[in-house]
Amino acid sequence: MSSRPLIQGRAQILIGDTTSHGGVVISGSPTTSVEGRPIARVGDMVTCPLCKPHVFPIVEGLSTFTDNYMAVALHGHKIACGATLIANSSNREE
Q1: What CATH number has the domain bearing residue 32?
Q2: Are 84 and 73 in contact (CB under 8 A)?
Q3: In the list 13, 32, 63, 91, which could disulfide-bond 40, CB 3.0-4.6 Å?
């Protein structure tokens, strides 16, 4: 099993990762993937079962690490409803 790379000690967020509100990342990069899953960036979409309208963009990312000019989202970054992104990987920062 491959290991998710860390950027500044934090794991990249991928499609299928979850949030502190129980949501799931549903969109990502069309060109860059890790472990066979597209990476998530600012502007990519995430579901949220707790907040209406139940789909929100990622609003926080690492501006010095981009994909197609979009900041890459890392474990602990936020989506528009305030939920925190969680990298579902054993090497994430706790």
Answers
A1: 2.60.200.60
A2: no
A3: 13
